[in-house]
């Protein structure tokens, strides 16, 4: 495996040798999140000659772990720390992080912007202060956000196409929300998409990210811990009840004395003898449509009514299990007995020097 470095603005290889003389490299992929990678470059003569200080600048460079032609993980350099004895430690994010530095703003505001006092009539705002996308799928709205963000300046991200649908979203520029936060909002509603930025190497050697949004799950895997030689083991089963909720409330946008509200309840747990567990969503105060707010509370109740049992598995990297994939897992243990369960992968992690990966998965929501 190699770690290579590219420019964030266009994915071009960093000038000179772009192959990092790393000693250790660990990575983590996550569902609807940026993921991360940690690189350790030991102090050596090769390190001194490689010019790490100029090549691994935060937000200028994107680092990628590559196995043959496959990009395992890639993202912007977020932080680096050097010590004389330990060498250089580099923290790398994911493509989602690129859009934490882009705001949800209509690019027309670039020419219309003025410093000073501005009249913002929230009922009839100037068009350059608003972005509205209609007639798109939720994934298509995410693509529209990416397309608008790329107008403000280039990134090594392909411009995505727009998938038609029935959804509408209105974004007010004065909220100054980040694109990454609004993408996360899209994934957090009922029947929200799985959003991923897939890294790949173009034929000319440039690193690129391809935006993908899908309602369907990823690859299906049939696995069993019951047979020796399969190389699959359950490392632990962790059940944290902090996520449980039977009743969820939320407040949306406010106009003078009128505020948008939504609530959703489920009797799935209370019918089994659980107590009523209430929760409030407080991060959707910019939502202007009640259907959107209802989608958020419905999804949260669905999540909160599902057994919060996280299963951590150890398996071979060659199986190609990634976040978003679906596992049909047969297990035998003193804790479970013999069970056959459907699990959805939310995280996978590993290192450049190991053939094994650790996978975290949750039961299917019903």
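^ structure tokens above, recovered residues below v
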């Amino acid at each position: 495996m190699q770690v290579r470095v590219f420019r964030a603005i266009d994915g071009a290889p960093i000038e000179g040798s772009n192959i990092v003389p790393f000693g250790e490299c660990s990575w983590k992929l996550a569902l609807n999140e940026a993921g991360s990678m940690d690189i350790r470059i030991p102090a050596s003569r090769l390190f001194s000659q490689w010019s790490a200080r100029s090549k691994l600048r935060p937000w200028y460079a994107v680092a990628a772990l590559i196995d043959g032609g496959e990009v395992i993980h890639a993202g912007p350099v977020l932080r680096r720390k050097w010590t004389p004895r330990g060498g250089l430690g580099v923290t790398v994010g994911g493509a989602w992080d690129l859009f934490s530095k882009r705001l949800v703003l209509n690019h027309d505001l670039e020419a219309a912007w003025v410093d000073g006092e501005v009249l913002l009539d929230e009922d009839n705002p100037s068009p350059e202060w608003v972005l509205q996308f209609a007639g798109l799928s939720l994934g298509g709205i995410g693509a529209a956000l990416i397309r608008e963000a790329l107008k403000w300046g280039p990134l090594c991200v392909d411009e995505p196409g727009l998938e038609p649908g029935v959804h509408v979203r209105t974004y007010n520029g004065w909220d100054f929300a980040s694109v990454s936060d609004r993408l996360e909002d899209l994934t957090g509603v009922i029947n929200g998409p799985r959003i991923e930025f897939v890294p790949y190497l173009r034929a000319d050697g440039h690193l690129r990210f391809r935006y993908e949004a899908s309602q369907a799950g990823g690859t299906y895997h049939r696995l069993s811990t019951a047979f020796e030689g399969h190389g699959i083991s359950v490392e632990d089963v962790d059940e944290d009840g902090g996520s449980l909720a039977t009743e969820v409330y939320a407040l949306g946008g406010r106009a003078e004395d009128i505020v948008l509200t939504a609530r959703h309840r489920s009797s799935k747990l209370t019918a089994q003898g659980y107590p009523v567990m209430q929760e409030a969503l407080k991060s959707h105060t910019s939502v202007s449509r009640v259907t959107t707010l209802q989608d958020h509370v419905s999804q949260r109740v669905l999540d909160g009514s599902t057994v919060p049992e996280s299963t951590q598995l150890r398996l071979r990297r060659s199986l190609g299990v990634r976040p978003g994939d679906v596992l049909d897992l047969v297990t035998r243990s003193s804790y479970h007995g013999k069970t056959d369960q459907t699990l959805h992968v939310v995280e996978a992690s590993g290192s450049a020097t190991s053939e094994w990966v650790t996978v975290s998965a949750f039961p299917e929501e019903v």
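The first helix runs from residue 45 to 50.
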